[in-house]
Amino acid sequence: MKKLEVSFKNSDSRELKGVLELPTNSQPSNFILFAHCFTCNKNFHAPSNISKNLASKGYGVLRFDFTGLGDSEGEFEDTNFSSNVGDLLAAAEFLKKEYKAPVMIVGHSLGGAAALFASQKLDSVKCMVTINAPSNLSHVQKHFESSSEEILNKGFADVKIGGRSFKIKKQFIDDLKKNQDASALKEIRKALLVMHSPQDEIVSINHAEELYKSAWHPKSFISIDGADHMLSTKADSEYVGTVISAWASKYIKEPKAPELKTDHEVMANLGATGFTTQIIAGNHHLVADEPIKVGGSDLGPNPYELVSSGLAACTSMTIQMYARRKKWKIDNVETHVSYSKKHASDCEECENDMAKIDSFEREISIEGNLDEKQLKRLMEIADKCPVHKTLSAKAQIATRLIDS
């Protein structure tokens, strides 16, 4: 993927800093706006991992720091919930002006509530996603309960949130009260996905229930089972990104893949950093990657796993195709393939690593009412699958440089 550092002005002329995650293969057709959690920033694990995952699916994703947080200008103490909503509207206007208006808005925690409010004013947004979000803003005031008297008397108080100290002014609490009910979804007729962890100890699962009950159809709820509020485990945030992409495909037109020259051509596109590679094969988008232990992000199979997958799929298809032609009933064909480099059995230079050859181990399980003669024939047919023939022969690879 490509990652661009961007900046734009909010309504108070404060410069907000953001990161735009883009797929490497082309300019995305659809853009997503991400709102991070209360007192967080754009570089926290959840917004970063979710954005990268969505970009790998072909979306452009903008995540940014709200005023007074991260790299953005301004003082946090002078902000409030309304200003967060305003920042989201400024971010949407930036996307509209420089790229394309966002079709989806995703919000984590209080960012989810802000996303719902902002979506009312964004006609381009077709889908909304909340992640561990509160259904009402009175929940946020719990952070300040112990300091409420000090805020009332002095007009402000220093409050510890997530181990960090923030100055909270009375205007912040007054603004929360003014925008009290974040579950007021009756005026929003857009597809909504509510994602929430039953184990969330900061915003309970009851909030998800209230959001879901208040929303119009189409609406969906998906549990992020086992996750904490911050989605601090990488697997949880990547799961969220994958689910959002699959759910949104129902409501958003998929980005059109670049046209390939021949029916059998595929395209692999890798950006300047990492190993995550986007693959286009016909009408299908795939992702290849390397394991984390060798510097990859493990967002997809590695190249040799893809080759092994091709052999396994072709084997199962060929066997089933032959059986159908013979009118033999097969319930299932399961092919396992593993790749390694091994010494040839008759190798005279087995101590020399250069003498190793590519080796594919293949195990086939065939379920059906078949006799031994039929099974033997099907195993012979397995060796005739086209990918098997290609791999066992010495293929020719012609390579040339083309213009970008």
UniProtKB/TrEMBL annotation:
Domain Serine aminopeptidase S33: 48-161
The organism's place on the tree of life at top rank: Bacteria
Listed InterPro entries: AB_hydrolase_fold, Hydrolase_4, KH_dom-like_a/b, OsmC/Ohr_fam, OsmC/Ohrsf
UniProt protein name: Osmotically inducible protein C
Organism: Christiangramia forsetii
